Amino acid sequence: MILDGQCHCGAVRFTVRLTDGLNTARRCSCSLCAKRGAVAVSAPLDGITIHQGADRLSTYRFNTGVAEHHFCSVCGIYTHHKRRSDPDQYGVNLACLEGQTPFLPEVEVLDGQAHPSDGNAARLAGVLRFTEGARDG
């Protein structure tokens, strides 16, 4: 699955080749992801091509410094990150991808507080569910 993506302001534009479509959609409960609230899907390291705005991307690292969280320095939107749990993959912000929405019926939340790279078993922290509300007509 190949999709175009961009940050909120359009300064950063990219194409991504997902490893397994939306089947890898997930969130994480680590301190950064809990505040960020994004749903990420997976791409191989060679699966992202930045077409515009590479110079506008900023990178944030914390804790072990292994994960690289990239965001637009203009609008602040997280676009993708190099994973700590699998350094051969990027997590890509589903909301940045054309024609996609992060409001999926169910999204698994992985336990990022007890990270697998710290010797813990990978485990599910929970499941987020989205139910569309009533609309005024």
From TrEMBL:
One of its GO terms (molecular function) is metal ion binding. The keyword Metal-binding applies. Residues 3-108 form the CENP-V/GFA domain. Keywords: Metal-binding, Zinc. Signal peptide: none annotated. Belongs to the Gfa family. This is Uncharacterized conserved protein. It comes from Palleronia pelagia.
